[in-house]
Amino acid sequence: MWNVAAALEPGAADAQLDALQPMFAGAALHVPGQGGVELARVGTGHILTLTGMRALAPVRVDLCAQMADPHRQRLLPVRIGYRFEDVARWAGTNSGSTLRNLILAGPGTRMPVLEIGGTAVADFARAGSEPLWVLWHGQAETIRWIGDDGAYGQGQRGQAALRQEGWLLWPGDGLLHVIRRASAGCTSGELLVQLYRLAPGASRNSMVVAFPAQGAARTVWLPPGDYQVPAAPAARLEDQALFEQLLARGLVRLGSSGLVELAPPDLGAYLAAPDSRAEGPAGWESVQFDDEARQLLAHLYHRADGDYVREQVRVFNSERRLLAWRVRAPQAQSGWQASISGAPVAVSVTMPAASARLFARLPEGWLAWQRVADWPGQEGNARLTLTLPQPASGNETLDVLLAGRLESLEGARLAGPARDVCTGRGCAAPNAVQQLALRAAAGSRSITLVAAPLDMAALAAPGDQRYRHLRVENGQLTWQALPYGERGPRPAMASVVLADRNGAALWSDARPTAQAQAAGLAPLLGLRAGHANSIAGMLARVPAASGAHQARLSLDLNLQAASQAALDCVGMRRGRVEGANCTGASVAPEGREAGIVIIDTETGDVLAAAGAGNQITGAADWSEVRDFDRADPARSPLRLPALQHDGGAHRSPGSTFKLISALGLELAAQRDSGLDALLGGMPLAQLNRMALDNGFGFRTDAAVYPAKTTRAHITNFRDQGLDRRAENGRLGLAQALTYSLNTWFAWTAELSDRSLFGRPDGGAPDLQALEPEALAGVRPIVEMAHRLGFEQPLRLDGGLLPADFRWSAWDALQATPAHIDPVRSRHELRQLAIGLRMQVTPLQMALAAGAVGQGRLIQPRLLLSLDGVDAATADGAPLPVRLDRIRAGLKGVIDTGTAAGAFRDAEFASLRRGLYGKTGTAPTGMRDPAGRELATVWFTGWLEPGSLPGQTHRWALAAFASHSEATGGEHAAPIVAGVLRNVLRQSQEQQPDSPSPTRP
Q1: Which of these ranges, 613-617, 670-674, 734-738, has the smallest mean pLDDT?
Q2: pTM of full prediction above 0.85
Q3: How many Cβ atoms are within 10 Å of 128's Cβ, its own excluded?
Q4: What 3-state DSSP class applies to 69?
């Protein structure tokens, strides 16, 4: 989102205005304090100001998928802002085969409709290339379009050009932003279409977009007020002026190696003595050396501004190449020396932040990195030498992780093949990082690795150079002014003390307590002081008159510890929890993560939120963790799998989503008596006749849907038909949930979705929504998902944080939104119904299950009180659908269905009566070394009040494990069983007059 909630740092507004100077020199700007949109003509361009506006999730359009004629790159029009009634009209006149990327507006909006088309050339960003065209029409006469290259239009109907960016404005309820950008998967690029709505309090700064008469737009942020854009460029600092003069005279240059080279201080003597040039610095013969050049070099090597320039060159060069190594054995950590061309060079333990992009997951079990800190301008390998304390016997081994390319070894040999371990987005090749097993040669006094560095350009990201003066643009070396820094001292951070719901200490003295660490809470509470996105870090940013905050969390430390133990034993290693012991466990496979959430459905209190597999061991590796967190925040080890997901393939909920699909089917059944009868249960013969008469390839004796097809289809678990799952010869929603019948859910999802118009083929499934309400009444399964909180960040502060708190995407008190991938086809709609092509958290799935049990939506909270003020408790809206058939199906899962085995033990006999649930198994397409297919496995459900001693409220539970070779019933349900087993045993061990540690 484009929202910015933070106030600008002192002086930052000046830097923002400086950015507008080249386009609008001397212009006066007014930024209003009230919410709304203003578009003003300024000179030959325009300035658009957005105040108090909130950006909704963007809709992406792949232009290659939109081609009417790929050979000529001609697009089918992208239709934006239409209503479903328009879609129904179009679908009634054709098969719907050309109705792609229909982007719908919500009901009641005054938004005009927009169409984008033309020839989608690959070089669209180049000046003079052919832009796309934009057509609009609406009800108001004052509809306006503003875009880059001076594109402007106004009127009830109009046409304009779109090259890289444009905005559609209309009176009233919002505006639309369209961006065309490059795409790795399509040479013609892609469109991002994003709706903005007025949301008072959304931002304390206004978004100001400047459109010059020629060229691209520029966006800055300014608080309300009146401003004057500087009439002249900002004065250059002395160091910038020195650098630019050196560059103009050829005394500083970008070498062929990619490093910045400075003319040597004795260049004058070298050029004045031709006979000695063979021994001098090569490549500077063409420099015109005069008094000005002599004075510039004197500044460079003997003045403060020159010292600063040289330091910037050193920093730049140190981040253009990377040769780094780390070892496992503590005795081999020290004693390393590095040299290049026979000359010693400095070694550093500080890694460039971009090096975090070499890994999809942080390497574990290694000592700190060391790297070559300074690179001379010439090409060449480096020698990394470890001096041994005594001559080697020949039996000594050394494990080395090398970021670079090994050329040769001296004093040792490889004890086995090198392992290629570069797995991140910045890897040019898998062998850019290698794990080496070395065996010392008998009698050697040292081990030397001769290695070539990595080119850091392969690791670069657009933001890396933001805080560096030197940068390369279009192959040219330039100096940039840095963002205006904060003046004066930063506000003091408040100290924080955290306790659980029963008063047990969780965080004090700027660190998690030992009990909290053992319960896996460090990523949530804070790994250490300075962990800004943690709960302690968030509260430290809230001003406190006393300088301190006392907060109580909804967590129950005992229940949290039991949950963490079950994850570590059952979730990660497929063991069995036996009190404090874990029996029968194996080694966790690489990449596996697991998480669990337990919620009090009466209050929304999060009683436990545990995660495993996220690699957090303590604060010792903080700098490496922090850099990885900045480089790849979604996969950071600071994310707690219980509350946050990475958006990847290992977070689909599989068949646990069927309880949400069931809610959507019940919603659709309210207006469709035939669907209602189907959900209630039909005789098998009648069910098959209904499908046949309407042309659908659904049969209860078939293992796939559509039956008898070689095209994309849905398959039942272990290729089973449905007939044997009938109850008294009838099959309905309860049986489909109990036995997780994929083909039944895929077919009924088609029947419920109005975009298919009741047809067995055709229709217009490729519907996207500018806002969730746009699909209300059209796609009931998605509608129910949105009601349950999908696509919305879930804030867990209980309303206790200030209204102007500076939230960020990865704050611990803000759970990652559950996301559903766009539905582009009928088959993707079927996949949606069975929980594929989406990403969720245990929190979201617990909220969904708890809502079915409670009969109403649940407002979750993790912050229970702050400085003596209690969190708000709010009843969620009732679920407006029939629930008895869904509850019956989820009870059947426990009694006779896919989770029955996990809760069969005699100790669960009394508890089992109050337990409802659903398992899920989401295949990932990956296989383990034994060839077994891997999946993400789930269990979610609820436990009725009184099922456990002292449990007075209903609990909702959800657990998952990734990279599993098993099913949800075999792997995820036992995680929950392990937690409940420990809770039962804790209750039995307590004295009769002791309060239950898990009482909500």
Answers
A1: 613-617
A2: yes
A3: 7
A4: strand
